[in-house]
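Hey,
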Amino acid sequence: MAKSYFPRSNPSLLSVPYAQINEARTSSRYYWDSMKRGSDPFVIVQRSVAGAGAVTLGKRRWEVPSGHALVTVVPERLCYFYPPEARMAWTFSWLNFYGPLATEIGKRFRDQFGPVCPMQEGSPAEVAMQELLVTVTQRVIVDPHEASEAAYGFWMKWWRQLEGARETEGGAVQGVIDYCRDHFREPIRIKDLAARTGLSREHLTRVFTEKAGQSPAAYLRQRRSRAAAELLRRTSMPLKEIAMRCGFQTERQCRESFQHHYGQAPLAYRKGRG
């Protein structure tokens, strides 16, 4: 662990006295409880470089995969650790921020974005974090105000980056909804939807579920089931043909999806509205 001369004496300034680059852990004995790290408040930002860690806060758990970082404001009831089920090393870099201003920024950041946030390699926030890491670990003596400015700049770049990502993600989710509404009768793969948005399949599934309350696949099945219900009400078309017209690959898939969404078999639904 490196210590630098980033200031800690002036309460109006941000200080970063401790940092570590590419620390690696392979044992579940690596476990930190933020309630047991002393009574003096400070903020930890720990970014995964390879592998993945985990965070728990209350009853909820988050993964911290590569390209993401955890934020904890000590002291609080948050724990971060090497997952017992992990099979590869968790490699990460971290910074500690001190001072009343750091604590205030950390709390507001957490309220806005949560305890685990993306910080992709090469992004403005990641570049700023790397610059801070080098400054701290090389024990560079810097002007206190310049040091605080660099630390504050890191937080603002990350904040702006995440706000921009939210706008992009919101547009991506709406784009998927619009596309499914217009093309649900066609074969649609989730990875193709992801490619249309520029997000990975996993990222799209996560943000879509957060904003729409269900996964893209579940939304698509719901949309197709609604179309099937309409045809069951309005026509005497065989279920096999309804399934084909509504985008289901098989009659069985249509029947199972319909049962899930309407609580009864398709033909029973038709009979009850005949």
